[in-house]
Amino acid sequence: MTNNTKSISLLEALIPIVILVILLGYNVFIYSDDATGGANQFALIFAGVIAAIIGFTKHIKYDDMLEAVVDNVKSTGSAIFILLMVGALAGTWLISGIIPTMIFYGLKILNPTFFLVAALVITSIISLATGSSWTTTATIGIALMGIGKALGLPMGMIAGAVLSGAYFGDKMSPLSDTTNLAPAMAGTDVFTHVKCMAYTTVPSYIITFIIFLILGFNQSGNELQDTSGLVTSIQNTFHITPVLFLVPIMVIVLIYKKAKPLSALFIGTILAGIFAVIFQPEIVLKISGFDKMSFHAAYKGVMNAMTNSVYIPSGNEILDKNELFSAGGMSGMLSTIWLILCAMFFGGIMQEIGALEKISKTLLNLFKSTFGLFASTVTTCIFFNATASDQYLAIVVPGKMYQKGFQDKGLAPENLSRTLEDAGTVTSILFPWNTGGAYQSKTLGVGTGEYIWYAFFNLISPIMTLIFAYFSIKIRKIVRK
User: Fold this and answer.
1) What are the tens digits of pLDDT across the range 88-105?
2) What's the pTM?
3) Residue 94 φ then ψ, to 5°
4) Which of 138, 134, 141 is nearest to 178 (CA)?
5) Are 102 and 327 in contact (CB under 8 A)?
6) In 293-318, which positions are buried (b, 16+ CB within 10 angstroms) versus exposed (e)?
7) Ramachandran angles phi, psi of 327, nearest 5°
8) Distances in Å between the alpha carbon of 110 and those of 104, 148, 358, 450?
9) Residue among 120, 177, 163 nearest 426 (CA)
10) In a domain, 155, yes or no
11) Which of helix, strand or coil describes residue 224?
């Protein structure tokens, strides 16, 4: 990468970002939630071209900028394949009856008044056990969305509870990649990091829990009078059996045993396809278009569910109106992959021309106090999530930048690692063009603009770390030996 921080001015570095923000804002005004269908993608490309033009004026080579874009795209390779596999998994989990079975038992057990806090706690536990917010939302998260939808709760609210729990577990689990990455960047160990992070994370979680509890009581009036009708419709459409829970349990165990998420999701998809043929042969036949079950019919039915959109009508007005039993398959994830690729184009060029580093260093120079150092770190993490569109860069770059600043002020490295997670990990889902936001929005079937107001844990965490810094609460100093 070329170092251009001396040649590029702050104004020049900000021009592509200002243009991008204007275009994205106008797209939301014109397209609403459909902005990610193409308009936002072109906005990212257009802003990237503006950044490239600025780069040309600084004598930065086209090949260097292109190489930076390619490197950025390479870094998202695993995320793209996970997205495709989540699409395949959602399709097979639907036709096999796994998702309907989860919804069936959820409707019988969960009450709308306590559903939001239940969703928060359930996803917290799963994410703590697996260390993966993405796996949590792709499995139990999808089922919770279906249950909450059937109960009449707002989709954004349900997604907010699911994401709050998933990212709490992701932050606090020693199995999480970001929980290991942040201390590595700051210069501390993972267990010291987790202990220090608990001081800001637990209060954020408690506040989130209380808010969802209050919201649940306010939503109790939306309780469907006859959930038995929904339960009966599900039972008449699918063969419901607890045996189907073996597949999600297997996926969770695999992740807990440190299997790669892509491997676990692939195994979960294949097992669900087999279970579909065994437990839901009529549905498989309907999707395949064959009259009689055969290897060809089974193959085509399962393959269609993995790769294309499928919809299974239940005959119940509420369930069918909400399209509860539908899935997009791998093809349904292509618009999100398109968005991620365009975001990587913009982020790669901005990084290569030195714009991101210039803005970050300017922020660092603005703050001289200890609180200012924390505020600058938080701002930089959020800035990188908004511009570089990747939560890992939002941890790695600020971690490298501010490590010496924290040392110079006599602050222990776990203060930095905690701040990186409080501001970098959790805020990635707040931007629809970020890999985190694009993935979660598509996986849960809710626009970022809908859930952002209810992702309380993700919104509170960066504020909480600033409150602790301002009042010097649990700010650890370097112990000199």
Assistant:
1) 988 999 999 998 888 888
2) 0.79
3) -75, -55
4) 134
5) no
6) eeeebbebbbbbbbbbebebebebeb
7) -150, 150
8) 10, 9, 51, 23
9) 163
10) yes
11) coil
Query: Which of 329, 317, 431 is closest to 384 using CA atoms?
Result: 431
- 105, exposed or middle or buried, with CB in 10 Å at 0-12, 13-18, 19+? middle
Is 197 in contact with 422 (CB distance < 8 Å)? yes
Among 417, 105, 360, smallest CA distance to 238 is for 105
Per this entry, what is the length of the chain?
481
How would DSSP label each residue in 104-120?
HHHHHH--HHHHHHHHH
Q: Which domain holds residue 129?
A: 78-332
> Looking at the domain assignment, is residue 122 inside a domain?
yes
* Structural domain contains residue 82: yes
List the structure tokens of 174.
Answer: 């020693």
Instruction: Give all strands (DSSP E) within 267-307, no chain letters.
Output: none
Under DSSP, is residue 308 helix (H, G, I), strand (E, B) or coil?
coil
Q: How far is CA 367 from the centre of its chain?
A: 31
Least confident piece of the model among 94-98, 306-310, 399-403: 399-403
- 39, with CB counted inside 10 A (0-12, 13-18, 19+), is middle
In a domain, 468, yes or no: no
- The CA distance from 169 to 158, in Å, is 17
Total of domains in the chain: 1
Average pLDDT score, the chain: 87
Output the CA angle 399-260-83, nearest 5 degrees: 85
* The pLDDT value given to residue 5: 47
Q: Which of 200-204, 250-254, 323-327, 405-409 has the highest mean pLDDT?
A: 200-204
